[in-house]
Give the backbone structure.
Amino acid sequence: MKYLAIALYFAVLIAIGAAASRRVRGMADFYVGGKRLGYWVVAFSARASGESAWLYLGLTGLGALVGARAFWVVLGELVGVAIAWFCMAGPFKAATDRYESITIPDYLVSRFGGSGVARPVRALRLVSAVALALFVTIYVSAQIDATGKAFHGFLGWNYHVGAAVGFAIVVAYTLSGGFIAVAWSDLFQGVLMLVGLALLPLAAGAMLADQPGSWLAALPVGHASLWGAGGASLSNALIIVGYLAIGLGFLGSPQVFVRFMAIRDQGEIEAGRWVAIVFTIITDGCAVLSGMLGYALLVGAGGDFSTILGADGERVLPELVSHLFPTLIVGIYVAAVLAAIMSTIDSLLLVASSAMTRDVYQQLWHPEARPEALMRLSRAATLGLAGLALLMALTVSVTSPDRTIFWYAIFGWSGIAATFCPVIVLALAWKRYNVWGALVSMLTGAACVPLFKFAVPLIPTWGPIVSQAEELAPSFFLALATGALATLATSDRGRARGSVS
């Protein structure tokens, strides 16, 4: 029965890809759905693609591992999503329509283009494309890794077989239907994610209600506190900053903002913002709560956490679902986990392939390229990047057996966010912001993520303390600051063409 539910899920995805392929007529259709999608599709697609495996497996695991402190992730995401939809989506949509942009680098080049800045603008397009290809490949590899873990955790499959199967399915429907297939499948997958996470804590709570005493009593010391074990301290405060900073990634990440390009009009944005907010509250809040309830139900006061849920807690969802539901429902949850993973993989692959095909090959090297040739190259680039991500995932699985899905995915997410979000924020909010500032912001953000992840923790005394805030927050704010300083220092070397603020 498990396999029946999974087979039906895969069949729906392939059918969506086949149906969407009939509507793909050119690059604009393949990359932004012809800019005619409705708010339900865009809102679910933006949220589904912005979540990924870390929501179902990573965030539930974090809830089991650290308890209520994981709710800071929920707050960070909610604030980030709200700012993106209420403050940034409208101006960004207006600007990309005016510039006729179909990729994020398209928008940046149009925003900063002007007399006397041809070379830095070309460099901006190239840096954008390279950064997308690099960090998207890392992020996608984390999702493929999660696919293998999901098949192993739920069905007992070999990790490598599970990763390969999930990879093959998502590549098949993405190549056939492009962005339209991705958006429609995200709507379907988003519904699965929403319903699955909403029902899980209800079912776990109902079972715990039959047991004597409060389920909170079964949690370890500190799990019911928003500060975490140890209470208020500098260490816990920095950890909370790292959790909150995850929401910064919604302030301009290409895989999210390309959805604002694709929506039909401003009225659809106003309606879609509330769908996105409700989706975030339910899915993220229920993920953390499910992890905490899973701990109480499966581990309790005397069980061994690592043996039952794994050292990182990321087995809590498979174990909890298997404990609560019959086989057919377990199969549906497998589909929901795969939905969280694949809705991100497909979006990222399209964003990265568009950067390589349109923004490098066509715009920089071959402006005379015919649409038919570009479409073939787009599909080839999508397949190539996917294959590279698969290879990376399999390599990491061998070289880093102690990795966690949560932080593996967050590293790729942080790279994308720190590179692009400060640029998008300043481009929309500050008229004087120029191409030199944008270049410096991008390079700073891209360089700081690996710096804060790998080098800063090695610094004696204060390095391990600072690293508890993780890499996104310091990288993001340094990119903002250096971009502003570079703009002020070069303001006489060329003005931006205008602002959409």
